[in-house]
Structure formats: structure tokens, C-alpha cells
Amino acid sequence: MTKVRRKKQNGRNTSVKIRGGLFAACLLAALCLAACAAGENSAQTGTEEGTVPSVSAQADADAKGAEEGSLAETSEGLLDASGQTPDQEPSDATPLSVKEMLVVGEEPRDGWVIAFETLNVRRFCYPQATVIGNFAAGQKITVTGPQVYGFYPVAGADAETGQQIEGYCSADYISLMEYTGDAVQLDVVLYKQTDGRWGDINLGESTHTMAEIGCTTTCFAMCESYLTGTEILPDQMASQLVYSGEGNLYWPEEYYQYYGTDYLVKIYQKLHQGIPVLIGSRRTSGSQHWVLVTGFDPGDKEIDSASDLTASDFSINDPGSGRTSLDQFFRDLPRYIKIAYYIGQ
């Protein structure tokens, strides 16, 4: 589903800075130490300690050294996870959807570092924990279990010594999709909100139609079609969403809304994790529009840090026009609002 090409795997990472008093820090450390020691894996998604990443002093510091198959009893004997009895030839498995691939269980699986330079490996699952080593940008590692407070338990070769280390890395900088370079293009279907099959339907109980104000709904349909590996048309998507009486959309809980000004970094990370990103902006007149970011390709430009990212590097699916790049979008709608992306249940 993800098409990539090889480019320089060098660059810098961003992280977060945790604020709070000494008491709060000590209490947090104690709680995380207990959780890590007991192996209590939380299914939270997001960033370190549940906060959002920003380009900060802590980010710059961490940038350069930063950061199913059981047997089932049946009346006819045992079936393995593929539905076959042990003496049967295995049948072809149904390919996993992107959503299914994003779920990490107890079994180890491959992961890739999507930091710009190096990614810190910490002894425990919180940002102030001791750094015990680091992984190189683009390095293949092993994710050894589910997330714990926004960190993945990981194992791999230290970038400096080559020795095997085990610890925790921020989940923001780990991709479960194979990383083979900077450029990435997600194979997302393109829907138009004005399509005659659904353009005239009303959104919720409002009098407004899909063609008029359904850009966000159409983006969700494109995104969910890609993430689930199924066809979800905009009218079907509308029946699953909730609207106000005026037709305004209530955001689904499994999508995180991010307002940070370093949104290009976040989009870059999410695309390399196999997740399309919704982005909204306003015209100077005040009206807003939403599109779906589906790809990144810097051409021959080297991406060595977050400052190297520009809107022209990103491709979009625009449900309301023929625009195909993020810089075209911002030329017409220059007032950025926010981005939103799938984080799971």
C-alpha cells in the first residue's frame, strides 16, 4: 500500500519537554517505573507522556541524540489461527488492513526509526529516563510489545557501539511500515464531494449538502477506505458520523486534532507510519476547506532537519478542487487551522 524510494536517511528529530514541579516529576517517575517493571502495557497512542511534540529546547536536545495465533477447540478437533487443522495445508491469509497493522500485540515485530538524525533509547518509559543509547535514522529495530505511556519497548543495535540494547523509544518516531527513504506515497482513493452519487445528500439533519460543506466528510471517507482496505463512499461515511443541526461535524474520538505550528513534521511522521493526514485552512474571507495529505516527495532536496520541510513537498487529495499539492492549497487558503490523524480506539 505504501510506495517509497530510497533517499538519504539522515536528519534530526523532535521531541517534547515535560513541565511540572518536582513532586509531580517524582510521582510520574514512580508510576512509570512500577508500570514498566510489572510489564503493564497500555494501549495509549500519542506522544511522550500523552503531550504533543513541539520544536523546543528539549526537542533539539533529543534530536541529536534523541528521541495472534492460539489454538481453538472445535467439535472437529483443533484449528490453528488460519482456520486449518494441523494436518491441512495452510490457505492464503487475508492481507491485513493498515489499521490492523498498526496494532501491536505481545509478539515482537519489525519497526523503523523515522527520526531526522538519531533517536534516544531510554531505560524506562518516560521522557526524563536515562538515555542508554540511540538508533540511527531509518534503522530497522524490533518493537517488543505494545505501547506504554506513548513509548514502545524496543531492541536493536546501538548506532554508536553496535551492541544490542533494549529500552523504550517515543512511539512518535517509530514506524511499523517499512521505511526505505524520505519519499512516500500512500495509495489513497480520490473522492469528490460534488460527485452526483452523493453530492445532493444532506449532512445530518441540516439543509446543507455534501457538495456544499462535505469536504471533511469526504476526506474521512478517503482516509477510512485506505486504513481499512475497504471501499467506504462519502455517503456511507456520512451515515457513520455525527453532525450538529447546522451540519457541522463532530470529530470522531479515534482521530487526534493537532494545532501545533510544527505540523509539517507531524505530517511527515504520520505518512511514514502509513497514516494519511487531514488538514484544514481558511481563505482570507474566512471560509474554510479540508483536504487529505497522502504523500511526501522532496525530489532531489536533502532532508536533514525539520526546517527542510516545505508545503511543496507534500501531495494531497482535494475533494473540492483539482489541487494536488499542499502549497497550492495554502496559496488559496493561507490561514492554517489544524491537522487531524487516526490514533486508534
Structural commentary:
The protein is of the alpha+beta class and 345 residues long. It folds into two domains: 2-68 and 97-175, SH3 type barrels, CATH 2.30.30; 184-342, Alpha-Beta Complex (Cathepsin B, Chain A). Helix content is 20%, strand content 24%. The chain has eight helices and 18 strands. It has helices at 22-38, 57-63, 98-101, 210-213, 215-228, 234-240, 263-272, 326-332; strands at 2-4, 72-74, 77-79, 109-113, 118-122, 131-136, 140-143, 151-157, 164-170, 174-175, 184-186, 242-243, 249-250, 255-258, 277-282, 288-296, 314-317, 335-342. The strands form five sheets. Strands 1, 11, 14, 15, 16, 17 and 18 form a seven-stranded antiparallel sheet that branches. The protein has a five-stranded antiparallel sheet with strand order 9-8-7-4-10, with no helix packed on it. It has a two-stranded antiparallel ribbon with strand order 2-3. It starts with a strand and ends with a strand. Residues 1-91 have low confidence and may be disordered.
Number of helix segments?
A: 8
H/E topology pattern: EHHEEHEEEEEEEEHHHEEEHEEEHE
Low-confidence stretches: 1-91
User: Quick check: average pLDDT?
Assistant: 80
What is the CATH top level name of the largest domain? Answer: Alpha Beta
Radius of gyration: 22 Å
Total strands: 18
Q: State the assembly state of the protein chains.
A: single chain
Strand content: 15-25%
Termini separation comes to: 22 Å
Question: Percent range for helical residues?
Answer: 10-25%
Query: Could you describe the largest sheet, including whether it forms a barrel?
Result: 7 strands, antiparallel
> At CATH's second level, what is the architecture of the largest domain?
Alpha-Beta Complex
> CATH topology of the largest domain, anyone?
Cathepsin B, Chain A
- Class inferred from helices and paired strands: alpha+beta
Could you say how many structural domains there are in total? 2
Shape: globular
